[in-house]
Design a protein that fits this description.
The chain is mainly alpha-helical. The chain is about 85% helix and about 0% strand.
Length: about 200
């Protein structure tokens, strides 16, 4: 082995164990933003049950689509402002999993949504958010297997539990929304804020 080979091996090892605070901060910021947007959406849905927010018309459409539009705007703004973040191999792998889950969610939305619309089935459409929660658990479970941090595994199990609970309450909208609220607050908003805090502490 020559000096150049040894230097390359050392660089590879550093990439594996690097703390990667910049990537973690950006990811945490975006995940917390998503959690905040969808927590507001859940509160508005609760308001619908209480008769405070609209159940139909433009208001209901804004409740359904508004948080996703707001998060998309935040996503574009953060990425354009911060630019690409330096990251090691593990973070790139975790990021790739979450990106793949995002694309899978979009495909599932089009697939399940089109069938639900054709069959005029609300129940069929409500399966989609359950699957989204399960896929979030999958992404966090991969992160746990790669990073070997216990709290990542707890978040993954939490998402799995939320997906199953939503399926159990699929014919009870109060229970369904309550389970979804627990998911976005406990396993999206809070982990995102925690990642931001940890990145800032280690910086």
């Amino acid at each position: 082995m020559n000096v150049d080979d040894a230097r390359d091996d050392l660089a590879f090892i550093r990439a594996l164990v690097a703390p990667e605070d910049h990537w973690q901060r950006q990811f945490g910021k975006l995940y917390a933003a998503a959690g905040a947007c969808y927590s507001v959406q859940m509160l508005l849905h609760i308001g619908q049950f209480a008769g405070i927010t609209p159940n139909d018309g433009l208001g209901a459409q804004l409740i359904g689509w508004g948080p996703s539009v707001v998060f998309l705007a935040i996503l574009i703004w953060v990425i354009r402002r911060d630019g690409p973040q330096r990251s090691g191999l593990t973070s790139r792998a975790v990021g790739a999993v979450f990106a793949a889950v995002g694309m899978t969610n979009l495909a599932l939305c089009l697939t399940i949504g089109s069938v639900a619309l054709r069959l005029h089935s609300l129940t069929l459409w409500l399966i989609y958010p359950c699957v989204v929660m399960i896929l979030q658990g999958l992404a966090w479970m991969v992160a746990f297997m790669l990073r070997r941090r216990g709290w990542l595994g707890l978040v993954a199990v939490g998402w799995f539990g939320v997906g199953v609970a939503m399926a159990v309450f699929i014919d009870n909208m109060v229970g369904y929304v309550a389970a979804a609220t627990v998911g976005v607050v406990c396993f999206m908003l809070i982990p995102g804020l925690y990642l931001m805090r940890q990145a800032g502490r280690d910086a």
